[in-house]
Amino acid sequence: MIERALVVGAGIAGIQAALDIANSGYEVVLVEREPSIGGHMAQLSETFPTLDCSQCILTPRTVETGKHENIRLYTYSEIDSVQRDENGDFCVRIRRKAAYVDWDICTGCGVCQEKCPFKVESLFERGIGTRKVIYTLSPQAVPNKPVIDAENCRYLQSKWDIEAGRVPAVDAKGNPAKPKCGACEKFCPTGAIQWDQSDTFYEEKVGAVILATGYDLFPQSRLPEYGGGKIPDVIDGLAFERLLAASGPTAGKILRPSDGKPPLEVVFVQCSGSRDPERGVPYCSKICCMYTAKQAILYKHRLHEGQAYVFYIDVRAGGKGYEEFVNRAMEEDGVIYLRGKVSKLFREGDKVIVKGVDTLSNRTVEIAADLVVLATAVIPRLTNPQVAELFGVPCDENGFYCAANEELDPVLSLAPRVFMAGTALGPKDIPETVAQASGAAAKVLALFQKQRRVYKEAQAALEAVGD
Ligand SMILES: Cc1cc2nc3c(=O)[nH]c(=O)nc-3n(C[C@H](O)[C@H](O)[C@H](O)COP(=O)(O)OP(=O)(O)OC[C@H]3O[C@@H](n4cnc5c(N)ncnc54)[C@H](O)[C@@H]3O)c2cc1C
Ligand code: SF4
Ligand code: SF4
């Protein structure tokens, strides 16, 4: 067996697993499809229940991962194909997407991003902020090297139009047509822009694999009774994290998307899509009760005069210090908890009308809110089935990877030497994710060390025969 591991996905689960293995002296190939590592944790403001700054506790680990001598990091990359040899080792083909920037030459100075004249909606900012066409995910990105979003780049699109004959090959003066813009290339001090870059393929051989591809959130478009994603001041939990984050589009000021005003009444709706078999999410998303309490507390800390309401079915706060944290939201920060479901949300003037019931007092409730935050369900990545198929791992009925034995071997898959960790297996918070990632890493290390022990024993036996 090759004593090298592959980790797919570099959120906090993948990072933790990779560091544990690398720090034990074994090589790790870490593949992340985004331009930089950190996953959803890089989007969070502060973390429950300690209210630590998420970026501050994550950055030392992303930096260590980025420069670790035992970690070969492929960002902006995905697994293209997998083959197993007769020893059960994996030969993995990795596709690195064209970034149109030579990362070996780029110093990460950021001049190109400054000079690029075009902005587009940023998925990292959950649509409430923008980014340039040449971009890094955040100022703390590891690696701190930009990529060009080809679909929106004027130069690449006009270059391809000329090459494909979609526009005249000569301009009005009869000169050969030239691609437009090119500001990033003009201003880059190191000449790192590389227009002819294409996807690159790499092959790596490994003896064990950890899948840590994480989670997505249930799309608001599938919640028509909550506006279907069309009401600007109805946002999801990750978007609210970006409003709270100092590195976010409002520099940590809570301003509502529609008009940039501070929202004085905010309604949080738990279980938005979760525990709803009709929508295909019969399970509890496990983290929403806690992050909603956190967000309501942080909202009150920033806007003292504001009022937060939380609609909940029941509060599930199972964790060390978690129950106390929710109580703190109610008792110290005056968050009003209303037990019941929200039946409908709609826009009226500059308000969002929230209609629900308080099942404790048996009353209908109507709140004219300035902002509504939906704790949308944690769902598996849409691409999980493809990854699962590549490695021969089954998924459960909800689309999360399936463990060989949920009780006693929760990180081992049914495919030999393929392990799993984090929210790719189901909803969980950061401490549980990290513990599970260390568990998966320990399983991989045990495999490698067992092989060494067997080899040493065989060698000792041979030497004994020789004597
Ligand atoms: C609104 C909100 C607030 C939260 N607040 C807290 C909090 O305060 N405290 C707390 O403990 N938890 C919190 N959480 C939960 C926390 O986000 C998760 O526990 C944690 O981020 C899970 O990490 P992960 O590595 O499993 O997944 P992810 O963060 O999703 O990382 C997975 C990584 O894999 C990559 N990837 C996916 N597919 C592929 C592929 N095919 N190939 C290569 N790479 C791939 C992704 O790009 C990503 O980088 C919150 C969650 C939400 C939604
Ligand atoms: S060519 Fe222009 S649009 Fe394209 S990334 Fe460079 S500066 Fe931005
Ligand atoms: S200007 Fe050039 S060197 Fe600086 S970040 Fe952009 S591509 Fe890299």
Q: What topology emerges from the helices and strands here?
A:
Layout (H helix, E strand, L loop, with lengths): L3 E5 L3 H12 L3 E5 L14 E2 L4 E2 H14 L3 E4 L2 E8 L5 E7 L14 H5 L3 E3 L8 E3 L1 E2 L11 E2 L5 H10 L19 H5 L12 E7 L1 E4 L3 E3 L16 E3 H8 L20 E8 L15 H15 L4 E6 L9 H10 L4 E4 L2 E7 L2 E8 L4 E7 L1 E6 L1 E3 L3 H8 L26 E3 L9 H37 L1
The site of one iron/sulfur cluster has 12 residues, from helix 4 and helix 5.
In short:
This protein is α/β, with parallel strands linked by helices.
Give the strand tally: 24
CATH class (first level) name of the largest domain: Alpha Beta
* Rounded radius of gyration (Å): 25 Å
Tell me the helix content: 25-40%
Unreliable stretches, pLDDT < 50, 5 or more residues?
none
| CATH architecture call of the largest domain | 3-Layer(bba) Sandwich
Question: What is the strand content?
Answer: 15-25%
Main beta sheet, described? 5 strands, parallel
List the bound ligands.
flavin-adenine dinucleotide, iron/sulfur cluster
**What spatial order of strands do you see in the largest sheet?**
5-2-1-13-24
Q: What's the overall average pLDDT, rounded?
A: 95
- The CATH homologous superfamily of the largest domain is named FAD/NAD(P)-binding domain
- Shape from CA axes? globular
